Structure formats: structure tokens, C-alpha cells
Amino acid sequence: MTEPLNTIRNLVVHHLHKDAHGPATVSLRAGELAVSASAQRLVDRLCKHYAERLGKGYGRFEDDEDNFPMPRFVRQHVEEGSIDFISLAQLMMQHLQTRAEQEQLASGGHVLIARVDNGSADFLLVAIITEAIGTTMTEDLDIIETVHLDLANLRVAGRIDLAAWQRGAERYISFLKGRGEVANYFKLFLGCNDVVVALRETQKLVQGLEQFAERQQLEPSQRDQLFERAHVFLDELGDEGLPLSLDQVASKAWPDAPQQLRHQLADQDLALSSGFVPDRRAIKPLVRFKANAPQWKLEFDRSSLRSGAVIYDKHSDTLVLSNIPEHLKRELLAD
């Protein structure tokens, strides 16, 4: 799959100073960053890491702009043009400082704010990036320590799809869920209402599994095994009222290569949330076919096609059913 081309329209990095259980302060950069090759690589890597992460929350702006001012800031910049990008970023930092103060476990870092166009979406990306110490070799083959931005352990980030927001889409904000309380303060900063409808999310999960089977061109037996394993796991969670993890779904449903399925479930177009309790009604298509026409209705297990109890003849476009129960035979003969 070709990576989308990220055109950086605006970019700035500020800093949030915050230790766990401590106060929050900010250091603001005076102007935008130039879009250098290094800046482009950083944004590209950040977008890639973000896109590949499972366990995101999705939602839309809260209606209360007094307590959740992000939609007002965005509207002033994007639609009204009354504030420039730097003013937008500074207002965002002031609000981030307030929200970080309210969460004791929040920690600081470099706050990257960028407006990016990747051809399919025009979005604001906000990420808090921390530093890590690594090692490298000098030209003289000495081992030295070096500090780098730790994108691999990105924990706090969010994205606002501006085009989707402007056209009135149902959901246009996403954020990394990560650890509960930390994710919650960042969700409040974004002004995101992430009410999840379990039935709809479960249907999207089933859709993602079906897309995976199609894109991997699985043999019928492999597809059945994938769907059966997923059904068993999701049915157990639904029965016990337990929320799912998409990482767990990938590991349980496709244990030999879970990363392949994780990549599919992380698809931005699928916009699949994590942490909901599966709706058992919505997982039936994984193991059962159900269809109707003006003169009939039909439902049968997918395994029936493998066992021969149901045979589809594509040349005559007919279904042949075997092992007809006695009571149905009597009713058919009576007509």
C-alpha cells in the first residue's frame, strides 16, 4: 500500500512542562517552523505511527464551546480567518495547559501542531512527543549516548479532519486512547464527544474482518477459520459484558500473523474504536448467511457450504439444501 503524500501547510512545535502531580507551564515558539527535509520526515513518521496505532477513540466536537473551546478556535482559523495559524496554536496551548493542570498523571513534552493535507484529508495533527536516550557510534567508532524523539512510544496524539468537520460528518476527531485518565484529559482538550454505539462499531469490525479476508485472498477454509475464531472471542466478550481490545481481536482471530490484521483494523477509513462491548447480534454474519427475496427467506451456517449440507451452483444460480427435517418434508408434501 502506497503511503499518502503529506503536504505540510503549517507547522509549529511548542513545549508543555509538566511532571506527574506537578503544575503545568508552556514555552511557546514565536513563529512557524520552516518545512525542511527533517521536518517533513518527522511529520511523515508521526502520521505513519499514528495511522498504524490501534485503540483510537473517535468522535465529534462537544456543543458546549465555553467549556470546550476547540471548535471555536478551529472555526476562527479555518472558516472565519480571524486568527492565523500561530494564534490558533497558542490558543490551543493555553487550553492544553489548563487541561493538563486538571490531570495529575499528565506529563509534558514537545507539542507538535501541524496542518496537513494528504490528498484525502485536510487535518490538524496534535501530538505530545517525549525524548529518549539511545546510543550511536561516532566516526571514530566510539559509543556515545544520543537524545532522540521517541515516536515509537507515542502515547498522546489526536487528529481533527477539517474537511469532514466542515461537511457535517458524524465523526471527524480521533485520538489515542492509551492509558485511561491521560487519554481522557487530551480528549477534553480536543473537545471530543466520543459516544460509541456498540452495535455500529461491531458491524464495522465485522466489515473490517471481511475486507481483510478479501484483500488477503484467503481460501474458503482459511476465511471460515478466521471468522469462526473471531466469532468465538467476540461472543464470549459480549456474553460477559467485557470491552474488547483490537490488539486482542487480531491475536485471537489471526494468531499466525496478527500484525497483518492489526494493519487492516487500523485503517483510517474504517475509523474503528476500541474499548466497546461487542454486540452479539452484529457478529452473526461471521458464521451465518442470512438473505431474503420477495418469495423466500433463508439462513444457514457458513460451515454448511463446506460440509455439503448447502450447495450453491453458480452455473444454474441455485441453492441445493440437504438433510431436510421430517416436519418440513411433511409440510412441503402437503402443499
Automatic annotation (TrEMBL):
Q: Which UniProt keywords apply?
A: Cytoplasm
Extract the InterPro entries matched here. Nucleoid_associated_NdpA (IPR007358)
Record carries keyword Cytoplasm: yes
Q: Would the keyword Cytoplasm turn up in this protein's UniProt record?
A: yes
Task: Indicate where this protein resides in the cell.
Answer: Cytoplasm
What residue stretch is flagged as signal peptide?
A: none
Recorded GO CC terms: cytoplasm; nucleoid
* Protein family membership: Belongs to the YejK family.
List the protein's name.
Nucleoid-associated protein
Q: Which species is the source of this protein? A: Chitinimonas taiwanensis DSM 18899
